[in-house]
Amino acid sequence: MNKKVAIIMGSDSDLPIVKGAITTLKDFGVTVEVHVMSAHRTPKQACDFSSNAKANGFGVIICAAGKAAHLAGVIAAHTTLPVIGIPIKSSTLDGLDALLSTVQMPKGIPVATVAIDGADNAAILAAQMLAIEDEALSAKLEQMKQAMTEEVLAKDAKLQAEL
Amino acid sequence: MNKKVAIIMGSDSDLPIVKGAITTLKDFGVTVEVHVMSAHRTPKQACDFSSNAKANGFGVIICAAGKAAHLAGVIAAHTTLPVIGIPIKSSTLDGLDALLSTVQMPKGIPVATVAIDGADNAAILAAQMLAIEDEALSAKLEQMKQAMTEEVLAKDAKLQAEL
Amino acid sequence: MNKKVAIIMGSDSDLPIVKGAITTLKDFGVTVEVHVMSAHRTPKQACDFSSNAKANGFGVIICAAGKAAHLAGVIAAHTTLPVIGIPIKSSTLDGLDALLSTVQMPKGIPVATVAIDGADNAAILAAQMLAIEDEALSAKLEQMKQAMTEEVLAKDAKLQAEL
Amino acid sequence: MNKKVAIIMGSDSDLPIVKGAITTLKDFGVTVEVHVMSAHRTPKQACDFSSNAKANGFGVIICAAGKAAHLAGVIAAHTTLPVIGIPIKSSTLDGLDALLSTVQMPKGIPVATVAIDGADNAAILAAQMLAIEDEALSAKLEQMKQAMTEEVLAKDAKLQAEL
Amino acid sequence: MNKKVAIIMGSDSDLPIVKGAITTLKDFGVTVEVHVMSAHRTPKQACDFSSNAKANGFGVIICAAGKAAHLAGVIAAHTTLPVIGIPIKSSTLDGLDALLSTVQMPKGIPVATVAIDGADNAAILAAQMLAIEDEALSAKLEQMKQAMTEEVLAKDAKLQAEL
Amino acid sequence: MNKKVAIIMGSDSDLPIVKGAITTLKDFGVTVEVHVMSAHRTPKQACDFSSNAKANGFGVIICAAGKAAHLAGVIAAHTTLPVIGIPIKSSTLDGLDALLSTVQMPKGIPVATVAIDGADNAAILAAQMLAIEDEALSAKLEQMKQAMTEEVLAKDAKLQAEL
Amino acid sequence: MNKKVAIIMGSDSDLPIVKGAITTLKDFGVTVEVHVMSAHRTPKQACDFSSNAKANGFGVIICAAGKAAHLAGVIAAHTTLPVIGIPIKSSTLDGLDALLSTVQMPKGIPVATVAIDGADNAAILAAQMLAIEDEALSAKLEQMKQAMTEEVLAKDAKLQAEL
Amino acid sequence: MNKKVAIIMGSDSDLPIVKGAITTLKDFGVTVEVHVMSAHRTPKQACDFSSNAKANGFGVIICAAGKAAHLAGVIAAHTTLPVIGIPIKSSTLDGLDALLSTVQMPKGIPVATVAIDGADNAAILAAQMLAIEDEALSAKLEQMKQAMTEEVLAKDAKLQAEL
Lengths: 163, 163, 163, 163, 163, 163, 163, 163
Hints:
8 copies of one chain form a homooctamer. By secondary structure, chain A is of the alpha/beta class.
């Protein structure tokens, strides 16, 4: 059976950003489970979810959090599954705090960090991980890449026509 | 019985910085317990320690960690005791990552953050918290403040003599 | 008699941020006194307030200031009570100036710094300090923590229903 | 057959940092291929390597580069394999330039970024990706995690004996 | 025959900024060709364009990109023509990521970087390069400089009249 | 009688940097008084010094402090004399904390800030202020400026001879 | 005759910020002359103005500029009068570029830098400089300081009434 | 006759960095003239040099300066030749001040900025500009590019042999 991807956000206010990841993964046909969980407000639930994620059929966990974004690190502490972190921009410091809190993990517990508010890329990265041993998914990624190329070429052609 | 202070460091490499806090608290006659615990490598021990800290007679917990410093936040998630965070400078980014990871806590779970590598101040702050209801400790803090003033005045007097 | 908490803001323009701290402390049943005082424009009043705060029944002082935020440091210079600093975001530099001016205190005079604009957390931290020796307040903090957990769990349940 | 991991560094001066990743992966029994390739000085070789990496049996590509670190992004542009980026600290800006150049990838082409100079974590992350469908490797990761925990516990025990 | 200038933007969303460069160069009578090309989404097209730019009559290439802005570096890797980079401000980090990704190029492959969103200056710089051996263009640059001076003097005169 | 310049440093560890200011002012024939005083450790002495500085014959006050550098701001709060701030680089954050704490003063209380560790310039600036109404001092400043020019010209001449 | 203050802005778009300085100085009865001049677009005019400023009766020059703010430094290069720099926030980097370009002057040529967009403080600082030898102006500064204190006290009184 | 390149450094302490540019340009057979000139200490000489540079046979001017690096901007103000800026790292702020002071030029006066301490790249960029209309120089740049590629390939081959 195919592995699922979990998307955990530290606050439901992160949903507008995180939605891009949900859609992208569903487009790839990947089964997604989405949760609001907090490293600080529901630490027990976060630890339990992470500790059992592998047994529950997950292959990758995506975590989105802002400010002192500890969620991805805390989730990563309880699993050997790859954990992807999306630093969320909040009202101060333009996302730099969340970026550094997510990416600068100490030796032993990596978090695969994507760009600030980079939810789509988190989803693509999760799909790339699952595709290492899944040729069908790999082919879908190849198609998406091709489509991106064609989209840029079309924009360039449109620009040539307009200028 | 007087409340104890716990000092937890994320790595034993933080000990040279943390030693200042241990000495300062012992000078105030405060009972100190020091641990190496990691939010990422020993999360269970950290959670357990924090969850039981109040019952075990602690009044304040000091946490020292570098890089994506999640330790203070994770400890704070499991207790209602005040938690003090010391951001530790590591080999890159001059401590800014640890500072932001410690101080920018989301609503609901504060960490009382002191300066980067500011272990002495963490100890003084812990003593100040305990002294709210402890006149003897409060008097010792007042003496320390007086001694600091006299030390600066003595340095100024020495400077006047030299120049 | 229970210790009071003072909330001092450097400018009345900080009131919209600071209001969160006032409400939170009142919800905990803590007596709050709020002042506009400036380290630079009313230094004498600030020094006097701080010097007499302990005698006047205060247990903790919260200071909110923006830009080169000296207020918390100046207040801390005149008291042995714990001082909490809230760095306020102003029109330039996204609060980084206030954060560094508040948190990077020199040895001997700590300021317990919370997140930029983190007034609610300042209030919770003040309550945590007072609760070290106040079981009733400690119980209220425990309830608030429980309520936060339930709020996140409810949001997660709602999300499961919607997706 | 098991997938290989490629480690590409932008300059042979990155080898002291990158060695940690080589050792870690070999300890996991993962086959590693190491190259010096530059996004700017050998762009053709980098593109060719990346375009053919999947066909050549690679499952993950790790890229290490400093300053305006384009290597991981350029490699990611030519493959659907997951690409891990290690920002390398150089003589100015303390690694911030390499971090931002690696992590802030535009929509469509993710790079799984680890901490500045975080080569060990890049290796662990690569192993975690390969382990999604490899129970033996997953067990080794679990053992490493266990060993890390025990190492910290031992350090704590030693500290208790010493203090 | 006079050398042309190519303006390449990483995304068509950069056009509002880039338009200033197009207009400025056309005002100088320089032939401009504008493209949407991406270092990550159309890497082959970008490489081909750059590799053939000199043979196709271009003298300078201007590249505009945001976030982890690799476009100018990738273009510079395939040509000996001077490449000018315009870092584009995006929704996080205020353009600092694009600036560092563009300017901090490693030894051997320079990118002539202008200010964040500095498209007009990129155009003037391109004209200055072409004018090294083109006295007519040099004279036009001199006139533009003169006009700028007069515009400031006129504003000062207007200010004197108003105040 | 000519106005004196006061140089106040927050810590005697700042003396190696501050010495440049003392020497420079003495070379101009300006009477200098040097003190160690702390906004946090000797606030009363700092306030008293500042409040009486004008009456005691000072024309300018120079303050040097590191980290959360409040000294210049606190001195400026108690006087209408111009106050010059020298941000001192300490062991973390490369002086950025001291710079922002010194320069970002709120409306009403300016601090004339010079470069990080820029003690010589603080002295020259103080002399420039005193020279507004002192033609002899103004002439000395003109001579120093001339000497600087000649020093650079000599270095250029030496370089021409060597290359 | 009393010395005048010159206010020079690099662009007429700085006028909304600079107006605060004009008003403040006029309120002090200081004669002000305001100019638009650019270090880059009207360098000759800027040099001439600065070279002759002392002879033309100026005592202080205030310069306001954004981005790579060279204006204050260029003006300071041609005079021994004290030069005050106001870094202006522009559309990127939140004023940090202008601040560093203004304050980090090399040895020999100080610029007295105030806060980003701190035009009022620039005016007060200029008045403080002129007041060193002008008791009437000094008295006005003392009155303004008193008024500021009373304004804060009134706001505090109003707050006490409201809460 | 071939155009010359001028290399101007703000201080002779920049020579160790700048030497790389001198050697590189001489290797290309470009005539180089090197000067110590300061925007602040020898402004007249800098203006004169720049104003006459084109008439004196220069095609490009390279400027190296640290801290509030105004040199490149001031030189660019007086010429229509392309000006290349090398931000020099000094003892504080890791070169960020020099980078922002050099690159963030206002509209109308570009400075082609290279990496902090990137003197070699400044030289290559200058050669690229001169090579727009100089096929022989263009061929040399192509050879250098080829040599760089071969150097990296050789390093990779060596690495394959060693590992």
